[in-house]
Amino acid sequence: MYVKWKIQGKLFFSFDGTRQAVRDPMFSSAKLVSELDLSKGVASILLDKEEAIVGNYSCEVTESNREGETTVELRNSTGSWFLPVESACIIVLLFLAIIFCWAQLSVIASKFETVLHKKISIIIACGIFTIVAVVGVILFVPDGYTPGSRAGLGLIVVPTVILLPLQYLLFGMVLDSLSKTAYALIGLESLGYITAVAGFALCVSACPVLHGSVVIAGLAIMAIGALLSLVYVCFVGSRIRDHQPPRKAVEEPLNDAKGVMLERCVTKEKN
After folding, report:
1. How many domains does the chain have?
2. CB burial of residue 136 (10 Å; 0-12, 13-18, 19+)
């Protein structure tokens, strides 16, 4: 089988059945998609974006006494890397996870007595993560499969690992020792992170995106885990508050004891 690829009638790539040969140094990245699929009539080639020149490409395939030629036109157009709905879901789920994390910190700060430097450390970590997420969204929003959009998706997905130790620290500020529920919620968020990173790895090398739903599923799991953690923190806070004895009930016996002591002192003075 012999394959020849031409652009505007000029040969730049050929395959003689045993080896691939690039005839033009301007197309040094040219290679067959799959040599095994040639027998099925698939003679597609891959080119780097920088080398793909706009124009008419023709492919000639010769096998035994059969010969065929196909012409295709390469156009330059700009389109979305992700569907608008997918992009919106990724951004919304990311910020939901961030909001739920800040909400947990607010609940803990208002209902629990904690060490000040721990609060400050967590606030700084949450602030840094929020800034990184905003930068990632700014890079990710523009259309097209560009290095900037890929870097933006990376800044959206990869730094979410910060939420895992943050969640552990937030639970540690509420509980003396982490319960099975707390570990389960951290495990749920870890599962979401692994799923999101796997989706990112699948998406970053493909255009159009084929596995955008994997990234969305991972971020959704993380957002759900953060929401359930917020509910759990609120539940623990209300339970601790309900078990605290009323301040008046504690003060009244103390006042009675002080009154008895004063009466005894007055009696002794009279005697």
Report:
1. 2
2. buried
